[in-house]
Amino acid sequence: MTENPQAPNSGPDPAANEASGTGGERVIGTPTGGTAGPTGMTADAPQESTPSSAHEGPYPPEETHLRTEEEQRRGERIAALWFVIAFLAGVGFIVSYFLFPPGPDGPAVGDPSTGQIANIAMGGTLTVALFAIGAGMTVWVRRVIPHYEVASPYDELPSDEQEKSSFGEFFMRGANESGFTRRPLMRRTLFAAMLPLGVAPIVLLRDTGPLPGDILKQTMWEDGMHMVVEGTSRRIRAEDLATPGGMITALPENPEDPEHPVSLNDQSKTVIILIKMRPDDFDSEMTEEQLGWTHNGIIAYSKICTHVGCPAALYEPTTHRILCPCHQSTFDAANAAKVVFGPAHRPLPILPIRVDDEGYLVAAGDFSSPVGPTFWDAERDNYLAERED
Amino acid sequence: MSTQPPKALASAGNYLDDRFHLAKTGEKNLRKVFPNHWSFMLGEIALYSFIILIITGVFLSIWFKPSMQEVIYDGAYTRLQGVEMSEAYASTLYIMFEVRGGNLIRQIHHWAALIFVGALVAHMLRVFFTGSFRKPRELNWLIGVLIFIVAILEGLFGYSLPDDMPSGMGVRILQGVLLSLPVIGPHLSFFLFGGEFPGEDIISRLYLLHILVLPGILLALITAHIFILWHQKHTQYPGPRRTEKQVVGSPMYPAFAVKGGAFFFFTFAVIAGMSAIIQVNPIHLFGPFTPTSITSGLQPDWYMGFMEGSLRIFPDWFDFQVAGYAIPTGVLIPALVIPGILFTGLAVWPFLEQWITGDKRHHNVADRPRNAPVRTGLGVAGIVFYGVLWAAGANDVIAETFSISLYHTTYFFRVTLILGPILGFIITKRICLGLQRRDRETLEHGYESGVIQQLPGGRFIEVHQPSSAETVDTLRAKDEPVPAPDDTTDDQGIPNPKRSGLRGRLWLALNHWYTKDNVPVSHVEPGAHHHADHGAAGTNSGREGPRHR
Amino acid sequence: MTRNGETVKWINARRRHPLAGYAVVVLALALLGGVYSVVAPDNADRAQAQAQSADADIYEDVDISNGKQIFTQSCASCHGMGGEGTENGPSLVGVGAASVDFQVSTGRMPSMDPDVQMPRKEPVYDREETADLAAYISEEFGGGPAIPLDAPGSEPERAEFEDGAAGDEAYEEALETYEAEYEAYVSGGDIDAGQTLYLTNCAQCHSWSGTGGALTDGHYAPPIGEATPRQLYEAMLTGPGAMPVFDETTVTPEEKQDIITHVEELQMEADAGGIFNLNRIGQAAEGFIAWTIGIGLIIAAAVWITAKQRAHD
């Protein structure tokens, strides 16, 4: 296409190339248009076919740095090469989609190693196709399209005083004539009428969920309820936790279906870690009541951190620390889970435990305090109880 | 050669023009000029990744099922067959292992999200440090801040949808933060989750927000942002012909349209390339969410990292109770107050700066960061503050990698969070003023040519060449700060009511702080000292000889 | 100054070269490779880690006197001649053979520096010597769990066999037996149960992918990718360092096998999302890559598109 130096390269951008020899990019001949602006020069403005030395581009010649014909020709070839690559890669993308058909055992990409190859094949061809289009367009703009340094005026943003006052006057005349300013009864009742409707969408949100009530303060744990290892739903005996330093995550046994775990809602409140310590490891600060909640060196803490609710499960037997891996609240397992570091404020609730007649570990009641992140009235009952004492 | 459009094109154009009167506006808009500098394309990265997000998001939503119904997985991914999981997680596995190219689309979506928010930050920093938010562009800056906030929420909710283990923990933390709100916390949590955590509603509700409400808001905000930009035109860096009155660059048609198109393809290519070879968010390896399990090294996506860090390093020392009702400041301050300060600070800065400087002029030529040392210093302080919080969000990874005590990293970040920004401010401001001094020298003397000359007296000098016109233009374009007029009292010694009182005195102090350090160049004649310097050899004004001449 | 000036000039001159844009992209790709080589896992290491051996006769036929000699040479200085422990090392009374086997076969003991947590390294003693030592300590100081011989331990090494063709053959045979045993063991567990148990009891320290994690006081939960099934088993059984104990009664041998199956299967699984798995660290690494590689490369493209051109400065 560019064999003919006068052929248009793109749209209405016919370059007068003879004049742009080795060094002289700026084409002289066309009248200076000054700064380019919306001058109303539409596509049919330069009517007559000008001589080849004349500038026919859309912008004034001094703002248009044309490429030499040689450079344009090279650019065209490189860009075309990129576009051919893109075409081939695009075809490759579609081909690689069909390269991984489902087999008798299901989809080929169901196997992670095949999936990896499919992902690389499809993603790789897509990448090459996209990159090549971008590269081709960049070559087009840098080698074929002239380099423009077009100036364009910023609009004067504030309107002039006359326009402003005219508008203000017009607006107020309208407001007055409409009665909006002069008839307050109508105006005010209209606002009043809008008000309930504005609140209505918020009222409609009321049924998005129940009221919390006291639900957050209670769990399904109750006296005599068996505890089972999470993941196997097997009941735990006290002597199963034989070695000091032992630990296991446990849930209540599902009363309806002992084979399956309780619901996720219940799991998120009832989950505990059972920790086995030497009975003399317990800190002397622990109260009689708290020690009474343990059984033979086994203590059950809620696994849900009192900061924002991550499972705080990182137990170090050497230091008796329980660390929450999310925000590093640290609790002292040997001292009723008192907070020793980090952002949590309340100790982890303790689940009182005992053994039943068959030697299985069971709960001896609900947690010592509300489980999970501290909420508004989490400690209120405790506070009232203390005030009564 | 004909400049008449081909017949088909002309008749199509006429058809549209008959109905919309487009010729004049059309031409004006096609002539819109874009400054030619890479840093003006950062916002475009965000725009293009947003487009990629919408395209890939549509594909993902074809197969994704936003349901928390528990199912037993029996899909193609053998390792998890028989595992109980939510339908949301199972359908994500379906996309990954049963839809050809599904995993690629999912990974493109995820990488594009990470890059989208990253590009927003990069773009915002460019606009901040160059003062491009100044009048008349304050409102567009505000829209930008809103886009940033909505984008973060959009990302957080999207991250939560697959219902894998870390994403569920993200939701858990969100719920913990909601619960901590005084009085209304438990209610809000119950309303959002349809009851207790995790309930059965949260995924479908987050899905609604993620694919309809927030993208809709984003789309509206981005459209407004671009329309305002289009109307007000770009700012530009100082240089020849580039003035407050006119902008110089590539016109939309025919040049910039091609550049922008190329850039879209490059952005898409990089994201697709990463998705082809770098595994991102491998939810199939994490396993389904249960409220009882957790992993060490749990991290949110990077844009939530600062909040994670803030939650990690803020202590519980200020928690208190009012009549037994808990005010858990250990959650409220890091999760709500600190991000609140950050975003509010971003939002009000243009108005605050305008109040401090009293500068009500229109600005189209961008500041060079060094020429606004206080703003640049504050920006760096902000980056340090954000960066420390962000790093603190990975303190366990840092502690493990370098075998440092975990608690010591926390103490370190607590101290750095306060000292770092102060140091950052001071150092940056000093560097800015140093650069200003060098600019003035360059303006006075030209640049060091690297040519050493021996004078007849035997002394060596380095020859200075006059700076190019472009350099001079750039340096002369400095927008000098105007200190407050000395008008605390009038001629008769009567105190000026505007300069007394708390507000007046605060204004004076801030204005002084903002404008006092400046290396003025307005009086400097470019190259004025050029000859004098080289004629009058000697230890002129006590500067070190060899370095300067 | 002059030299620098010249370098800058050299770069400036070429920055405007038509190929400069490509060069920037190539450089950025090279950066990608460089960053990757730093953060990438060593796949070869991981593959090799899976191969180890369970060989019961080593443990049937132990040489206690050799164990005693090793103990006196390498252990007694810190743990005391009577195994009662000193300020440099804990008591070995009642620790048992599994604990010794874990510490010695993972190379953690003998330790050169008792004050820091020992990382996993090449073991000092071979399988027979370790067995002798374990037998001596368990016999002399009593108690503790025995070595779980069902779980495959370390792979046989060529050095343990005679030189020459006969030795080669014996080695090949032992290796084959070992590999069969290993296959049988790590495919024998129930992955579902293993995954649940792992995620509720192990992942909080060792992370979902087994890369480990930080503990308090500068300690850490080590990565478990290189551990043999036997070492994993022994760790659960004895709770080395700051790790809790998982008794045979709370997590039964079958359940331990489930957990080991899950760990090994996860380690072996190819990364469906691409060849670079960012060490399976997760979001922190992803954010880093998004900023450096992602935004870095895109900006490189922007620089190419908008770069000034030679003829038009």
TrEMBL record, chain A:
| Principal place of residence | membrane
Chain segments carrying region Disordered? 1-72
Entries under SUPFAM superfamilies matching the protein: ISP domain
The residues covered by the Rieske domain are 269-362
Report biased composition (Gly residues) as residue ranges: 21-37
Q: Keywords in UniProt for this one? A: 2Fe-2S, Cell membrane, Disulfide bond, Electron transport, Iron, Iron-sulfur, Membrane, Metal-binding, Oxidoreductase, Respiratory chain, Transmembrane, Transmembrane helix, Transport
Q: Where in the cell is it found?
A: Cell membrane
InterPro entries linked: QcrA_N, Rieske_2Fe-2S, Rieske_2Fe-2S_sf, Rieske_Fe-S_prot
Membrane topology annotation: Multi-pass membrane protein
Q: Which family does it belong to?
A: Belongs to the Rieske iron-sulfur protein family.
Q: What is this protein called?
A: Cytochrome bc1 complex Rieske iron-sulfur subunit
Annotated organism of origin: Lipingzhangella rawalii
Q: Cite the source lineage.
A: Bacteria, Bacillati, Actinomycetota, Actinomycetes, Streptosporangiales
TrEMBL record, chain B:
User: What is the protein's name according to its record?
Assistant: Cytochrome bc1 complex cytochrome b subunit
Disordered: annotated span? 470-500, 521-549
Q: Which residues form the Cytochrome b/b6 N-terminal region profile domain?
A: 12-238
Q: Where does it reside?
A: Membrane
PROSITE patterns attached here?
A: CYTB_CTER, CYTB_NTER
Q: Which reaction does it catalyse?
A: a quinol + 2 Fe(III)-[cytochrome c](out) = a quinone + 2 Fe(II)-[cytochrome c](out) + 2 H(+)(out)
**Named cofactor requirement(s):** heme
Give the E.C. number(s): 7.1.1.8
Residue ranges of the TM segments: 45-64, 110-129, 141-161, 173-194, 206-230, 251-278, 325-352, 372-391, 411-428
- What membrane topology does this protein have? Multi-pass membrane protein
* UniProt keyword list: Electron transport, Heme, Iron, Membrane, Metal-binding, Transmembrane, Transmembrane helix, Transport
> What SUPFAM superfamilies does the record tag this protein with?
Transmembrane di-heme cytochromes
Q: Which domain of life is it from?
A: Bacteria
Residue ranges constituting the Cytochrome b/b6 C-terminal region profile domain according to the UniProt record: 239-434
